[in-house]
Protein 1
Amino acid sequence: MATMAGNANPSVLSEGASEEKGEHARLASFVGAMAIGDLVKSTLGPKGMDKILQSVQKGNDVTVTNDGATILKSIYVDNPAAKVLVDISKAQDDEVGDGTTSVVVFASELLRQAEQLVAQHVHPMTIIQGFREACEAAKKALEETARDAGNEEKFKEDLTNIAKTTLSSKILTHDKEHFAKLAVEAVLRLKGSGDLEMIQVIQKPGGNLKDSFLDEGFILDKRFGVGQPKRIENAKILIANTPMDTDKIKIYGARVRVDSMAKVAEIEQAEREKMKRKCEKIIGYGINCFINRQLIYNYPEQLFTEAGVAAIEHADFDGIERLALVTGGDICSTFDNPEDVQLGACDLIEEVMIGEDRLIRFSGVAKGEACTIVLRGASEHILGEAERSLHDALCVLTSTVKDSRVIYGGGCSEMIMSRAVEELAAKTPGKRSLAMEGFAKALRAIPGIICDNGGLDSSELVSQMRAAHAAGESNTGINILTGEVGDMQKCGVVECFRVKQQVLLSGTEAAEMIIRVDDIIKCTPRQREG
């Protein structure tokens, strides 16, 4: 009986497992999540800094970026609450493409406020209830402040301004006019479908970023075979994923024993005959261009050249998937049923020079929306970051085409939402109002961080913005270039409504999830045998 009393709280976990309870668990969650927020905080806004990410794997690859999702995807995180923020950053990237840093910073600021409230003995469920009501009020204020473009000309102008705003916090900021134009042209070609697979981005080192251009049609980074036509009009294309090398015995460790060299020659001859029959089947489709995902050896290439068929080998999987999509063809592996195969078609296939490289351009493809953006730049690191920046802009523009509502940026929408939440807090009795005030402070922290990253006085500028919004100047935001508050409508700082709404909802949900935690259990590490 005495032993039972002495061990009143027996552990049910196996040896080696650990458990943190109550305040310790909550504090560990808050600290981990806030550390992730502090890590990416300095990359926020037009004057945000870049991070160098160095891989520890073979090759020690280096990535230079200020994209929140890329940074968080690349780092190994041990804290479970920090992993929640990494996941919402990925979700934001998949959903709307931009706002990946904002959502993490906003969630970590909410947790900073929650930590102070928990220290004042406000129950976590009360904080969550306050946050939920504040989020609804902020969402309603955001919807009221959003405006629709109206006519076609104004909509195109809004798209250009949104692209410029998105690119202004990236490496492309100095050439944002040029790249905003490229991105808007590419997205408007999609005619509202929003299928970014139609837009291919190719990186070609050399020249500078301003030399980048948009090409109508599809460009494949490959070359024609030797002695084959370099220009094909009214092309009929067969796209395949099939081995065009000599057939190897696919059983590991298998051997073929022969009693003379003549038998070896017979085996080789049989292989050649088999390959010849395969090539004849392919040529029998009545095509003038054959594109294969795998290698094409010399003998089949020679057969295609004799038949006047251009053969392109080793078009990587991404390449042939896109090609099949834009030319309207099927990807084949066997060639016994020609009637079941849809051939691809385009008006012209020709070889073009970009820098010092030869590439193949497909013009007049079945899907007229398809286009290729060719990025030029000094190094692979710059091109990699330029592609990530352009991808963000393209994602935001496709989101805007689906939902054409826009809002003003530069911290303007955050101030409108924070004011709506403060008004609600003033009318709400009880401790929930403290949580609402904390929510409003977290919203105001985002323009403050943008100012801090630009080396400006955040307290002064945020208080000026508050006063301007209270006086009814609801378009007021931070003009980071002049270091003053200004009218965002005149500055042309416009953001996509969907991006901001997603930041608000995802950030609040992630913060709620972490505030609920009161126990962290770590399993026993698996023991190595032997």
Protein 2
Amino acid sequence: MTFLYIAGFFDGEGCIWKYNNRRSYVTIAQQRPRVLWMIAAFLNSVDIKCSVYRAYDSRPRKYMYQLSITHTASVHMFLKHVRRWLVVKRKSANSALRQTTQWLARQRQRELRYDRAILWYTNGHSVRSAVLTVSGGVNSTTLTKYLKHRGLFRRPIVGRPPSEQRHRTTPAGRRPASRTPTRCQPASPQRGS
């Protein structure tokens, strides 16, 4: 199995879908799944995530098998490998490749912002100050979830431990005597004459 064969097969039987004008995914449909399984095995071996499943096509009222690549990084790698041999789908492949390149660049920038916030947080600062130092696209709730997922989140200390609490001292340098609260006596009801 080679990318040249897959490019020819995809050019005839495949499709490039755009989802919300942001993300693209690739499908190849066939009635017999054997070729799709071979293509999926080859693509998965070169780290392009894909899957083959059975789908119902309502027009000929038959079941079809469909290989689909939905992970954006995998779509990008697939199109990079097969683009030079495409004839019919070259224009839409170039468009989808541009779109996935921009999406992956935004994703890398987002990960860099989170990594900077995590670095700030692991140096002893709070989540709030980590969010404030890293501008753009990072909020405290998402950063907290990200830290918990990575196992880096530490519970904030609400109060100081008793050993670190500061005590007010008297001018002589001694602790003031503890005051016990006095209980107020309820007023006795007055009886009218």
Protein 3
Amino acid sequence: MTKQLEVQLAELNAKLEQSAREIVELNSVKSRSQAEIAEHSRQIEEAESQINQLTKLKQNLGKQLEEAKASLEEESRLRAKFQTEARNFQVSETRFARSSPFQKRHSSPVHIYFPLTDISLQFLVRDVLQLPGFGCRRLFS
């Protein structure tokens, strides 16, 4: 009977050692899994942060686009207005040049051309009207 107990004891010790090795291996797998979970959690947080940044950037770019569209519409409206005013000025200037004493002293009519791409056209017209001897101020008053 002692022999049987010794054999049983040896088998149980072997099983105990095997179980201890399995516990160590499972703890190692558990540690690796926890490290991977921590790494994946960090990557998810970084991705969420980037998503938030990109969302804010998208909103800012949308606002800038809307502002650019509004600015373009305003500039187009002003350009059309200044082109109309310039055409009216050229017509008035031609009528004035035909009847002015300046025309009688010089054989060719006075022609003034304005670049219509610049918003400063209104300031150019104002400056021309203030030149000495330019007598059509009454047309734009």
